[in-house]
Amino acid sequence: MTAVHPALLGAGLGLVLGAGLLLVVYGNPIMRPRRLAQRIDPYLRRDRESALLAPREQRGRRWQVARRLLGPMVSRVIGLLERLTGGPEQLERRLRLAGRSTTVDTFRLEQVVMGLGAMAVAGVLAVAAVTLRGASPLLGLMIILIGGICGVLLRDYLLGIAVARRGRRMAREFPTVADLLALAVAAGESPVAAMERVATTSRGALPEEFATTVAEIRAGSTVSEALMSLGTRTPLDALGRFGEGVAVAIERGTPLAEVLRAQAQDARETAKRDLLETAGRREIYMLVPVVFFVLPLVIVFAIFPGLAVLEISL
Questions:
Q1: What residue ranges are annotated as transmembrane (predicted)?
Q2: What are the beta bridge partners of residue 47?
Q3: Considering Cα of 232, then 234, then 235, then 236, what sign does the dihedral take?
Q4: Tens of pLDDT along 198-208?
């Protein structure tokens, strides 16, 4: 069994001592600033479970468990994450664009968990580098810190990938859904009934958004407001223009079936242009194996027989 390097042991003990002293200092009520909400909270709430002026904020179950286990440490880490990756309003919009039903606090908790997991993996690599390669303990601490940051940023990057994937999925579904709406409206149904029919008879990301739009209309929103908010919930720009066009057609009395057919045709033209652009990019990517793998082999096969003949003649 290999002994632990004294420098690494000293660095670890110093890190634990520094973290403990930092927690003691920041956990002191005298050093903890009181926010405005905390100062006016006794005058607004009758107890911890009720509020007079605003409803109690709903938290996710995982957030509540972690908050009770870790206490203020989670709040401080989540505040640091908000400063690094954006505020809660921007994150909430991205979660809505990705079609996720999780709350902002739950996503922040997932970032913390992924960061801790990355720090654990980086810690194993740092210990191996220090004990086996004789690296500096400071380098090991930097590896752990970089691993935690990479874990946090990886969760944010995966959210961006989910938003882009949902946008591509909606772009594929949009022409067909627009044609279905045009057929339903041309058959004599109202716009709300047509959207409800598409939402109940189809499956996919776009029918789910139409189901949400119908629910907003049933809850009291106007058709124009619900269609305008449809573009803000989805990453597809064409869907925002679709909502605006349909809302304007309803307000002005324009034949809605013709508007929907025009929207479907525009969506197909946009999809065709995107496909051509993707094909152009793929064509450039295909040059990489041709230039670096096929072309050198062709040159070798062309030159090697001549070199062999020269060697035989010499």
A1: 6-26, 112-132, 138-164, 284-310
A2: 50
A3: negative
A4: 888 888 888 88
